[in-house]
Design a protein that fits this description.
This is Nitroreductase family deazaflavin-dependent oxidoreductase. By secondary structure, the chain is α+β, with helices and mostly antiparallel strands. It is built from eight helices and eight strands, in the order αββββαβββααβαααα.
Length: 299
Amino acid sequence: MPSAFQQSVIDEFRANGGKVGDPFAGSDLLLLTTTGARTGRPHTTPLGHVRDGERVLVVGSNLGAPHHPDWYHNLLAHPAVQVELGDQEFETIAVPAEGPTRDELFARVVAEAPGYAEYQAATDRALPVVVLHLPDPREPAAAVTTLADKLTEVHTWLRGQLAQVHAETEAHFAARAAHRGGGAPPPPGLGLQIRQRCLAFCQALEFHHTGEDGHVLPVMEGYHPHLRPVFDRLREEHRSIAAVQSALAALLAGVAIAEPDRFRAELTRMTEQLTAHLDYEEAEILPLLADVPWPPASR
């Protein structure tokens, strides 16, 4: 629960299109909603930010306290976050910067908001700098008017995230192989970019398949009992994919990805199984959902 003061800032921010009066008049604020690492409940926090091109930067200063703020621990556990920025609201994946990149971005923040240098001087920990990418205005959201559209939207996101994690992982291993041949050394480990994106993918996939098993498939089976073999196959594929998802999630439990070679193998297995599953589901299920309106009518 936010404090009474924080809640008053949140309320004023939302009531005035992102503008807040004293003591934050003229400050660049955003609202960051994370999912509680222990509770699983949403938590909204007002934060200062610095715009950096097509992304915004937030710092886990905690006013220079010796420990990271709760919202930072939350986004490590659940990388998908909700951002309110002025009158704009969007979802993104929160990625803490690492190594020299973190130092460069912190210097960028301090150049615009010098108070963060004072917070850094007050503590021995390196203040985290978290990158939040803005939506690409060149990619307007596709119209979603049917359940088929919604399913396609979810599948497109899952495919995109998985492809990006796979590409970044392969780039890391290629850099590692080049280093053995005398090239520049790759960054240590697989990096928080890969970890955060893959964890967000795993959590979204689990939520999606749980919803299908618990609600969508039973309802569809009631309308189309002759397609029971299709629904049974989808459920079985969900169970098989869940085993791979659990293996990946276990490797992402720490801040550093454990066993990079095993992670790469499990990621390849996920790519193969999920791609085949989504292709089959779309071929069999999408035609049945083309006339089902979305969002569903309220009762």
